[in-house]
Amino acid sequence: MSLAWLGVDILAINPDVARALTTLLGVGENLNTLIFAGFVAVVATLFMLIRMIEEQRRDITRVVSAHALERFRDNLDGRN
Fold first, then answer.
1. What total of structural domains would you count in the chain?
2. Residue 30: what are its φ and ψ, rounded to 5°?
3. How far is CA 40 from each of CA 28, 43, 46, 80, rounded to the nearest angstrom?
4. What's the mean pLDDT in 59-78?
5. What is residue 77's three-state secondary structure?
6. Rounded mean pLDDT, 30-56
7. Which domain holds residue 15?
8. Nearest-angstrom CA–CA distance, 80 and 64
9. Is pLDDT at 1 greater than 70 in this prediction?
10. pLDDT higher for 34 or 63?
């Protein structure tokens, strides 16, 4: 995280570094391209995390439901 803030500080102090970096990468001549790429990366990461969380939620729901049904059946059979 500190490395990211160091990069922001360098770009804030010397904007020519951003111009040189984007020209070197061949993506444009301004900082807007880097900012846009950062937003795309953040949004893609968020969608992946949301999908993973939803899958875990479904798995937990299945396990809890199966356990509850098993306990219910055991109580019907007279086992405690």
1. 1
2. -135, 170
3. 16, 5, 10, 54
4. 92
5. coil
6. 85
7. 2-76
8. 18
9. no
10. 63
